[in-house]
């Protein structure tokens, strides 16, 4: 997931959904669980980065 921190947010979402569908269809539950856990951790990391104000676009916090 560290590599994912530098990827485009929309592309990461597309990849996640693609692999989630494959693993779900193939009944690979342990790998699907790992994917989902990693994705949740990614969101936690990104929130920390946003709050710290150290994110690169498109993850920068917008102050309005």
Structure report:
- The protein is mostly helical.
- Helices cover 64% and strands 0% of the residues.
- It has one domain.
Task: State the gist of this model.
With 64 residues, the chain is mainly alpha-helical. The chain has two helices and no strands.
| Poorly predicted tracts of residues | none
What portion of the residues fall into strands of 2 or more residues? Answer: under 5%
Largest sheet: none
**Helix-and-strand structural type:** mainly alpha
Q: What is the residue-averaged pLDDT?
A: 78
Estimate percent helicity: 55-70%
The count of domains is 1
Distance between the termini: 29 Å
Measured on Cα atoms, how large is the radius of gyration? 14 Å
* Large-scale geometry: elongated
Please report the total strand number as a whole number.
0
The H/E string reads HH
Number of helices: 2
Keywords:
64 residues; mainly alpha; elongated
What layout of secondary structure does this protein have?
Elements: H1 9-25, H2 29-52
Helix pairs in contact: 1-2
């Amino acid at each position: 997931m560290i590599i994912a921190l530098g990827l485009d947010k929309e592309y990461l979402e597309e990849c996640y959904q693609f692999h989630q569908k494959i693993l779900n269809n193939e009944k690979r539950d342990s790998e699907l669980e790992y994917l989902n856990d990693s994705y949740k951790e990614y969101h936690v990391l990104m929130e920390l980065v946003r709050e710290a104000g150290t994110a690169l676009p498109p993850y920068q916090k917008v102050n309005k």
